[in-house]
Inverse folding.
């Protein structure tokens, strides 16, 4: 389904254009969470290919990790990049449906939703490995970016542990411009966002980008009542709130289209990037 979205008021300035996958497709993709990381790697590649990213998909072997980062690029009119990431690896407990197949399985759908028209930015979708091993996959990716790539990267949008509640954001660690943009889109599409910081819980892939001063934001769904799901047998499909999960997908799809339109007009990242 092709969506043209024009919110009330001057927030966007023009229509946002993107596609939305049906809810049945989004839920079918998250149901494909598999027990072994090697199986999850193969499955994410399969879903990327089904979404149209087969020829543009690459693998990046990661030192000290048995599975690679899986990367899909959506070329834009410019080389300026927006990175969208989620880790696909899991711990031994549970099915890893929430942490973090919920994020990884959205990456191909988000790619598909943006690919319907030519974008200003080049989007780089990263299904990272080794997040549960001290962020090895995202660290490896960042430390192998060239100086030119670092200079051209305008934002890193990270998704981790979605679908336990309505959309949350790690506000304390978010770039101020990226956070403001998310709140603008949230209000415009009437999909809620809560600010829930998770500093005491652990880290996530967005933090690998902080040391290079790349503006970053992490979208999640954790609350005090759902922390017990992490790294436990409770991390399974039954923990998923399907309506909240689909709303999060809809919000992120609109958010990425908005960033593609608005990021060139944000102040430079050197003035606004949050330090770790």
């Amino acid at each position: 389904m092709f969506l043209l979205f024009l919110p009330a008021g001057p927030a966007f300035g023009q229509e946002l254009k993107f596609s939305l996958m049906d809810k049945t497709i989004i839920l079918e993709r998250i149901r494909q969470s598999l027990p072994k990381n090697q199986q999850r790697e193969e499955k994410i590649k399969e879903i990327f290919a089904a979404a149209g990213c087969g020829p543009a998909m690459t693998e990046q072997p990661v030192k000290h990790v048995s599975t690679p980062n899986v990367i899909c690029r959506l070329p834009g009119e410019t080389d300026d990049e927006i990175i969208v990431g989620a880790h696909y690896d899991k711990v031994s407990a549970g099915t890893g449906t929430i942490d973090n197949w919920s994020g990884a399985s959205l990456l191909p759908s988000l790619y598909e939703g943006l690919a319907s028209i030519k974008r200003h930015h080049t989007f780089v979708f990263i299904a990272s490995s080794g997040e549960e091993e001290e962020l090895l996959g995202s660290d490896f990716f960042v430390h192998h970016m060239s100086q030119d790539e670092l200079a051209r990267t305008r934002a890193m949008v990270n998704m981790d542990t979605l679908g336990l509640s309505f959309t949350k954001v790690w506000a304390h660690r978010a770039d101020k411009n990226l956070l403001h943009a998310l709140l603008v889109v949230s209000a415009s599409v009437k999909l809620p966002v809560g600010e829930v910081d998770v500093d005491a819980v652990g880290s996530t892939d967005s933090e690998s980008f902080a040391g290079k001063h790349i503006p970053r934001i992490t979208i999640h769904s954790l609350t005090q009542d759902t922390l017990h799901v992490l790294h436990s047998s409770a991390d399974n499909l039954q923990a998923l709130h399907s309506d909240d999960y689909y709303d999060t997908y809809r919000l992120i799809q609109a958010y990425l289209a908005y960033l593609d339109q608005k990021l060139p007009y944000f102040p430079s990242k050197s003035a606004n990037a949050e330090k770790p």
